[in-house]
Design brief:
Blueprint: H1 6-16, H2 20-29, H3 34-52, E1 59-67, E2 70-78, H4 81-84, H5 87-103, H6 108-112, E3 115-116, E4 119-120, H7 121-132, E5 137-145, E6 150-156, E7 162-170, H8 173-193, H9 205-221, H10 226-244, E8 250-251, E9 254-258, H11 259-269, E10 274-283, H12 295-303
Antiparallel strand pairs: 1-2, 2-5, 3-4, 6-7, 7-10, 8-9
Helix pairs in contact: 1-2, 1-3, 2-3, 3-7, 8-11, 9-10
């Protein structure tokens, strides 16, 4: 005779968030021992997570936390956009961002190797994969940290698909206070305009050379004489830098000034100076190759 009843199944389900039948099987296998049933489900969860590990996770969400002079941004991937909107996924993402922020974890590897609530984080992640029902990947982490003269702010687009962290160095704390809110506007600008680099100094020399080659070929095709190419090329490169560096882009809220000028003007209004010093932009799933699979074939595979 079973040493458990419906109330025990309900309790185990609330404790583990596992399915009703899984909870019943766990209690049957452990003769109604609740702690042993939890362990049984965890082991089963690890097995289920392993089956999902080869699934491409290119959806998900970007999370961010900013306090005082530190900002952290994490991309967590799921297989589908549907799961990314799920309350369980969002709660998990919130746990991860707080865990990384509070423990100074600056990479996905550090998070996976860390301890969380008395267990290895990788084991906890496997349990979440089993509970949520999709492969989950802690893909990348960005951290900006500074002293009292560094202001940090950021922005995550409402759908969680784009996140931006920016920082400015200020002449004094007063300027940082004035600039901090403005940096959110800068982050929103960067989310929309997608500058590739912070400033001209951040652009690799090989990128500039490649742009010169492209511009030169375009000019030759347009029929421009060889003797005036070198006079036209500097203007082409200047335009490239204006379009692709955050500092030099025209500010979306006032296209009469650049983003760098916008930050400088805000600081001047507070009687001080400030300049941008860091910029990181994540776009969900960028660089991940999605594998399109026939739905019927996927169902057939699951039935094997």
């Amino acid at each position: 005779m079973a040493n458990f009843g419906p109330k025990d199944i309900k309790k185990l389900r609330e404790m583990t968030d596992a399915g009703m039948m899984d909870c019943k099987q766990a209690l049957s296998a452990t003769d109604g021992d609740m702690e042993a049933a939890v362990e049984w489900l965890r082991k089963k969860g690890l097995g289920a997570a392993a089956k999902k590990a080869d699934k491409v996770a290119a959806e998900g969400a970007i999370s961010m936390k900013i306090e005082d002079h530190k900002g952290i941004m994490i991309e967590i991937n799921s297989q589908t956009d549907f799961v990314a909107k799920n309350d369980k996924f969002q709660a998990f993402a919130n746990e991860v961002i707080n865990h990384a922020f509070d423990n100074g974890l600056n990479s996905a590897e550090e998070i996976l190797e860390s301890e969380f609530n008395g267990e290895n984080f990788s084991e906890y992640l496997a349990l979440q994969i089993s509970t949520i029902g999709e492969n989950l990947v802690i893909r990348r982490v960005a951290v900006i940290e500074g002293n009292d003269n560094v202001a940090i702010n950021g922005y995550v687009h409402a759908n969680g698909r784009v996140g931006v962290l920016v920082a400015a160095e200020c002449e004094d704390a007063q300027a940082c206070d004035a600039v901090k809110e403005a940096l959110k506007n800068v982050a929103m600008h960067a989310a929309a305009m997608n500058p590739q680099y912070l400033n001209e100094e951040a652009v690799p020399a090989e990128v500039i050379e490649k742009e010169k080659e492209i511009a030169k070929e375009q000019l030759i095709k347009e029929g421009k004489p060889e003797n005036i190419l070198e006079k036209i090329l500097p203007g082409k490169i200047k335009r490239f830098l204006q379009d692709n560096t955050l500092e030099n882009q025209k500010f979306v809220m006032d296209d009469k000034i650049s983003v760098a000028q916008y930050v400088s003007n805000i600081a001047k209004e507070a009687g001080s100076n400030a300049k941008l010093i860091d910029y990181i932009r994540f776009e969900l799933g960028e660089g991940i190759e999605k594998v399109e699979e026939d739905f019927a074939a996927e169902v057939a595979k699951q039935m094997k």
